[in-house]
Write a structure and sequence with these properties.
Elements (H helix, E strand, L loop, with lengths): L3 E6 L6 H12 L11 H9 L11 E6 L1 H7 L2 H14 L5 H12 L6 H10 L4 E5 L1
Parallel strand pairs: 1-2, 2-3
Length: 131
């Protein structure tokens, strides 16, 4: 059985907002509302049921120009990500987000690219190919 192929291309974006726009473009179809541009919303989209693949359907995500994305989503982008999360998170999460932010400033811990990869790979129905 051939798995549906979904292509995201790192050449089409330079930042996380552009990445989320790309994800919306390739994983949704026919929505009358805008998706959230955050990791929780990305996780929901990866599960399926938003017009491109069904909930739990086996798919292949091909991430073209992944080397460019790895650079784009390095520690600088990770710092910006955590600074943004810190302005929106629940107060009970502020300490843990602050800790992650401090680690990123010291170039420790997962980069935003690695976080995105881990999130995608956490879905058993998704095969990820970096090109």
């Amino acid at each position: 059985m051939n798995k549906k192929k979904i292509i995201i291309d790192g050449i089409r974006y330079n930042d996380i907002d552009g990445f989320y726009d790309e994800i919306d473009k390739v994983l949704t179809k026919g929505l009358t509302w805008r998706t959230g541009h955050n990791l929780d919303a990305l996780n929901d989209l990866l599960r399926g049921g938003f017009g491109v693949h069904e909930y739990g359907e086996a798919i292949v995500i091909i991430w073209k120009n992944a080397k460019k994305s790895r650079v784009d989503f390095g520690y600088d982008a990770t710092i910006k990500h955590y600074e943004r999360v810190l302005t929106r998170c629940h107060p009970t999460n502020a300490n843990s987000v602050s800790s992650l932010l401090e680690d990123a400033k010291q170039k420790k811990g997962a980069t935003l690219f690695e976080i995105l990869i881990q999130l995608i790979q956490s879905h058993d129905n998704i095969e990820l190919k970096l090109k």
